[in-house]
Amino acid sequence: MAKLATPSLIIVIVVLACMISAAFGVADLYRNIDVTWGDGRGKILNNGQLLTLSLDKTSGSGLQSKSQYLFGKIDMQLKLVPGNSAGTVTTYYLSSQGPTHDEIDMEFLGNVTGQPYTLHTNVFSQGKGGREQQFRLWFDPTADFHTYSILWNPQSIIFSVDRTPIREFKNRESIGVAFPNKQPMRVYSSLWDAEDWATQGGRVKTDWSKAPFTAAYRNYNADACVWARGKSSCRGATWMNQQLDATSYKRMQWVQKNYMIYNYCTDFQRFPQGLPKECTASKF
Ligand SMILES: *[C@@H]1O[C@H](CO)[C@@H](O)[C@H](O)[C@H]1NC(C)=O
């Protein structure tokens, strides 16, 4: 009896695990993502568990989520182009369509071997961006997969890396700053070449002898309100009222103190007439 129970128990566990991961839509990139450009340079592999984008001298490649969302908590694990990635840019962002679009951006700017990547962030609301903050990472983003998340709810947008918040853009409509809350957005990612500006201000060019350059993706998870036919439907959405608690706020401050390398909110030269309103609003 005991001899029989063991293998069937294993089968039951395997079946359950598959059902659970299918129910949460985890690890099924075929179901959630379309590779949209790059002529075969973007590939979904391992039964939908892994996706790679690549870039060579002819073209880069890109993907987008099948669904549009109006608010959500989006996680994706990325492993960036290793070695000499100078000139390459890996983007990962949410964006709506049209001239007054909203956008929530993370871009990873490559570098020469041994020099750090820059994580560039920005928020566009109703077509207006110019809200750049840039960071170094506290690990090598090419050595392994790390989780990059965007929490977008009506109160704020929180960017996180491995669950550590690095940036918050709060809803400041009360003082006249537009906030992305009306236009549904899709998730996009791309790997492309921007050697004219990406690395050390464009001084370091892409070394095409190292092409193709490849970035890898897995564990896409959109716990989000899906937009279809003019309305959004959410399941659960425990994140809808989520805010930074005191502990995560402290961790964000730690990141900003130690790893932030550019902040538009402290760039007085750029804004001689005064900083953007959201920069001088109270923190809470
Ligand atoms: C690349 O490395 C240099 C030298 O460490 C650094 O100044 C620069 O900010 C890094 N990142 C980019 C994208 O150029």
Summarize the helices and strands and which ones pair or pack.
Blueprint: H1 2-24, H2 29-32, E1 33-37, E2 42-45, E3 50-55, E4 61-65, E5 68-79, E6 88-95, E7 103-109, E8 118-124, E9 133-135, E10 146-152, E11 156-161, E12 164-170, E13 186-193, E14 213-228, E15 231-233, H3 246-259, E16 260-263, H4 277-280
Antiparallel strand pairs: 1-4, 2-3, 3-14, 4-13, 5-10, 5-14, 6-7, 6-13, 7-8, 8-9, 9-16, 10-11, 11-12, 14-15
Bound molecules: 2-acetamido-2-deoxy-beta-D-glucopyranose.
Task: Characterise this structure.
- The chain has 284 residues and is an alpha+beta fold.
- The chain has one domain (21-280): Jelly Rolls (Sandwich), CATH 2.60.120.
- Helices cover 16% and strands 38% of the residues.
- The protein has four helices and 16 strands.
- The chain has an eight-stranded antiparallel beta sheet. Strands 2, 3, 5, 10, 11, 12, 14 and 15 form an eight-stranded antiparallel beta sheet that branches.
- The protein is globular and about 60 Å long.
- The protein starts with a helix and ends with a helix.
- Residues 109, 111, 115-116, 118, 198-200 line the site of 2-acetamido-2-deoxy-beta-D-glucopyranose.
What separation lies between the terminal Cα atoms?
A: 62 Å
Category by helix and strand content: alpha+beta
Number of helices: 4
Encode the helix/strand succession as letters. Answer: HHEEEEEEEEEEEEEEEHEH
How would you name the oligomeric state of the polypeptide chains in this document?
single chain
**Helix residue percentage:** 10-25%
The outline comes out as globular
The CATH topology: Jelly Rolls
Task: Please report the first level of CATH classification, the CATH class.
Answer: Mainly Beta
User: What hetero molecules are bound to the protein chains?
Assistant: 2-acetamido-2-deoxy-beta-D-glucopyranose
Largest sheet entry: 8 strands, antiparallel
What's the total count of β strands? 16
Instruction: Indicate the low-confidence ranges by residue numbers.
Output: none
Give the strand content: 35-45%
What number of domains?
A: 1
Q: Work out the radius of gyration.
A: 20 Å
